[in-house]
Design brief:
Layout: E1 3-11, H1 19-25, E2 36-41, E3 44-49, H2 52-66, E4 68-69, E5 72-73, E6 75-83
Antiparallel strand pairs: 1-3, 1-6, 2-3, 4-5
Length: 85
């Protein structure tokens, strides 16, 4: 059976941003817990969730509740990752 994780990609985040600042974006009561938070390169972060449902809930949370980061609109998209056995 395949393990289906889902990743939110945050773009255009200043490179000086600390991991704790990104983690705080997802600290709302109605936001699912993420598995990992990783700076990739060029202002891009990958936030991995257990399921596509969790990442969709987090996506909506960012777009509808949080909306901005450091005074700018949050640039976020969602991808699914399949890890077959």
């Amino acid at each position: 059976m395949a393990d289906k994780k889902s990743i939110l990609i945050l773009r255009e985040i200043p490179e000086t941003t600390q991991t704790t600042e990104i983690e705080q974006l997802f600290s709302g009561e109605h936001c699912p817990h993420f598995l990992s938070c990783e700076f990739v390169h060029n202002g891009t972060w990958y936030i991995t969730f257990e399921s596509e449902d969790d990442s969709q809930k987090a996506f909506r949370f960012l777009r509808e509740q949080v909306k901005t980061f450091q005074g700018k609109p949050i640039m976020v998209c969602n991808i699914r990752k399949n890890n077959g056995i």
